[in-house]
Design goal:
7-stranded antiparallel β-sheet; 7-stranded mixed β-sheet; 38% helix; alpha+beta
Length: 462
């Protein structure tokens, strides 16, 4: 460890630290220190990576901004525990303004603890640090949410954010895939970061299994019992579902090369506890876990549903029927043309009709063979919207903590590959100029006056 006297004073802060290194000289056992030093060095030296990661926290890194990063940070004020030493620090400086953030990292199977986070929030408050950023293999739907539940009082001490290692890996890969790194040397550095984080020995992991409480909750539902939204088992299952949802969105992001995000209701974006409560309530009321994924430029969000009663997983997208097609058959054909490349036998189509009546449903294969089939009981009204869905009956695999995740991470990408990427939202055609008014003189004041007089004459004659 470097002596404190040899460390660099932190600009405008009462503390010292070691500048982060691309090639850190650390013990073989210091996986976390090695990974964090390399990451922070890339954040400071690959401008696009720093901009991408920090923009999600609401921190703008402009052309003139300078990003400095440090490890082995020691502050003068450390509260009651003098041994506390943050793993790192990110400092964004823009003229006379600066934004400092403490960084605490875990890797492999190590997880963040509530006590540790609260201690660093205390240090941040004492040293006028704007934020605490945690990094681990745990997942959160938004950087402003956190995988560890904290009280409202603790969160008010300083801003708290979380990145998963897989999120960092995904952001880096998307930058490379879209040629968004201008400098060739920086691109090489970022590519090496991806290579490093993707290697098994580094300890970066994805979400691989539901918790042990999954079996208990599922057994209760299968036995016809009721669930309590305040139950620790229910909270553990919903919390795990939130983590898996984020990992799933990152997997899809890497597949399509664009950022796929979790759709969180506006009222819950600033309050992760509210989201947990709402989803616990939904699970108890309809025995389903739900997730909404927003894919850039897709026709609609992908709604993911895991039904604990039927042991099935569904991925769904909804489209309005084209209003310029006058018949239901024409509207169905409009949808079928979009799905001409789909081959999965698990694809279904739901048709919704005016009012609150029941929808019609058939497999895509059946609808292709006989589009008139759905008209037998609905020949007096036109379909108003469609749902295209892939449903998989998982059977016994649904109860297995690992296989449930495997099936979920197969169903959603398969649905998007087979159907989602081809669906297009209907848009009304642009209005056209009428033939009788094709020239400017057809709508000048003289023409308008003549038209008004004709209409007036017709009115009085009648």
């Amino acid at each position: 460890m470097v002596d404190q006297e040899k460390k660099t004073p932190l600009p405008n802060l009462n503390g010292v630290g070691e500048r982060s290194r691309l090639f850190p000289v650390l013990a073989e056992t210091s996986k976390e220190g090695r990974a964090l030093s390399i990451l922070l060095a890339c954040v400071a030296n690959v401008r696009e990576l720093g901009q991408s990661l920090l923009s999600d926290l609401g921190v703008r890194v402009g052309v003139r901004a300078e990003v400095e990063t440090f490890t082995e940070v020691v502050f003068e004020k450390t509260g009651s525990d003098k041994s506390l030493r943050p793993d790192g620090l990110i400092l964004v400086r823009n003229g006379s303004r600066q934004w400092p953030a403490i960084v605490e990292a875990k890797i492999g199977n190590s997880e963040l603890s509530q006590e540790q986070i609260e201690n660093y929030l205390d240090i941040a408050k004492q040293n006028k640090i704007d934020a605490v950023i945690t990094i681990s293999n745990q997942f959160a739907p938004l950087p402003s949410h956190h995988p560890v539940q904290l009280g409202a009082i603790s969160r008010r001490k300083s801003e708290l954010y979380h990145w998963s290692w897989m999120h960092i890996l995904t952001e880096s890969k998307i930058l490379l895939d879209n040629d968004n790194v201008a400098d060739e040397d920086q691109r090489l550095i970022l590519n090496e970061l991806v290579r490093f984080l993707a290697h098994d020995s580094t300890g970066v992991k994805h979400f691989s299994q539901m918790p042990s409480e999954w079996t208990t909750v599922l057994s209760t539902v299968q036995a016809g019992g009721g669930l309590s939204q305040t139950s620790a088992d229910v909270k553990a299952v919903v919390g795990a579902w939130h983590q898996e949802g984020r990992d799933l969105s990152l997997t899809l992001s890497r597949q399509i090369g664009r950022n796929v995000k979790i759709r969180v209701p506006r009222a819950q974006r600033a309050d992760p506890t509210a989201r947990l409560k709402a989803d616990c309530k939904d699970l108890c009321s309809d025995n389903c876990l739900r997730l909404s994924l927003s894919v850039p430029d897709a026709a609609s969000p992908i709604e993911v549903v895991a039904d604990l009663k039927t042991k099935s997983i569904a991925a769904v997208m909804r489209l309005k029927a084209p209003a310029d097609r006058k018949t239901t058959k024409a509207r169905i054909n409009w949808l079928l043309r979009q799905l001409k490349k789909a081959e999965s036998t698990e694809l279904h189509v739901r048709l919704y009709w005016p009012g609150r009546g029941p929808f019609s449903q058939s497999t895509l294969e059946e609808l292709r063979r006989n589009p008139d089939l759905v008209l037998e009981n609905n020949n007096k009204s036109n379909v108003t919207s469609f749902e295209v869905l892939l449903v998989r009956d998982c059977g016994p695999r649904f109860s297995q903590r690992k296989n449930f995740i495997v099936d979920l991470e197969t169903v959603v990408p398969s649905f998007y590959l087979e159907a989602g990427q081809y669906l297009r939202e209907w848009q009304a055609p642009a209005p056209r100029i009428r033939e009788e008014k094709s020239g400017p003189k057809d709508v000048d004041t003289e023409a308008l006056q003549e038209e008004a007089e004709r209409e007036a004459g017709d009115f009085y004659e009648n």
